[in-house]
Structure prediction request, 357 residues.
Amino acid sequence: MTTSDVAPPTTRTRRSSGGSLWRYILVRFLLIFPTVFILVTLVFLFMRTTGDPITAALGGRLPADQLAERIHEAGYDRPLIVQYVEYLGQVFTGNFGRTLSDNQLVTDVLLRYGPATLELAVYSLIVAFIVGIPLGMLAAYLRDRWPDAVLRVLAILFYATPVFFAGLVLKLIFAVGLHWLPANGRAGARNEVALNRLDHPTGIHLIDAIRLGNGAIIGDVLAHAVLPALALGLLTAGIFLRLVRTNMIGTLGQPYVDAARSRGVSEFRLVRHHAYKPALIPIITVIGLQIALLLGGAVLTETTFEWKGLGFQLVQYLLARDFVAVQGIVALLAVIVAVTNFIVDILAALIDPRVRY
Prediction:
C-alpha cells in the first residue's frame, strides 16, 4: 500500500470533522433569529392584551380628548398587524421607542442600567462556581455517606428557596443582625457620587472603582455585592452541585478509572485528576440556561437589595404601567439569552465533539 493510498482517508476524516463543526456553528447561529423573532412576538402580543400602552400608562390621568390625541400620534389606533410590522422594523434597527413615564429612549435605559445587571450576573456565576463545583466534587468523593446526603439536601434547598426570600434572610442575618455587610445599593452614597463623576463610566462599579484606584471604594463595592450575589448565586450553585456529583460518580465507574484504581491510585486522586474535567462539560452546556435563570432572578434580587439594574427598573416600569419600556427591556433580555446560548453551544462543541451533529 502506497502513501497516496493512505493519505486521502485521513484528509477526508479531518475535513469531515471540521466541516461538521462549522455546519454545527452555522445551524446554531441561524437558530438565533427564529428564537428572537418568537420571543419578541410573544412579548408584543402579551403587552397588547391590556390594550394600547398609552391608555395603560396614562388612562384616568388625562382628559379623553388628550388621551385620544396621544394614542393617534403614537399610532396605537392603527390595526394591530400594522403596529406589529412597524415594531419588528424598529427592534431589528435597535430602536425600542421612548418610555412613557419619563420620556427616555429605551436604548438609553438599557445602556444605563444593563451593566449593573451584567455585573450582578457575573458575581452570581462566580458564587455558583465557587460553591457548587467543590461541593459537588465532595459529594461524589463521599458518595452514599452522610455528608453526601446532607449536600444533596442542601442542593435542593439552594434551588427551591425563592430568591427574594433568600435575600431577605441574608439581609436579616448579615446586615441587620450582625452588621457585617450593607443591606442595599451598589455602593455607599458618597462612593456612588465619585463613581458617577468618573469620565466615561462603564456602569460596572468594580471596573470603575479600579479605574479610580481607590482601595476603600473597591472594598465598598465588593461589600455591597456580597449579599445579592449570594442570594442569586446559590440558586445556580444547587444545580451545579447536583450536576457535578452525578457526572463525577458516572465517570468514576468507567473502566479506565477502575484500571487506575486497581493500580493503587487513591480515590481522592481519581476524583481530582480523572473525574473532574469530564464532570465540567455538562456545566458548560447548561450555563446558557442558567443565564436565563439569573436574568429572571435578577428582577427579584435587584428589587430586594435596591440594586439599580435592569431588573429593578423593570419593576418600576411595571408599577408605572409603562409597557413600552417593559417591552424593550424584555426584548433585550430575550436577545441576550439567545446569543448566550449560541456562545455556550459553540464552547461545548469545541470542548466535547460528541455534541456536534
Observations:
- Residues 1-17 have pLDDT under 50 and may be disordered.
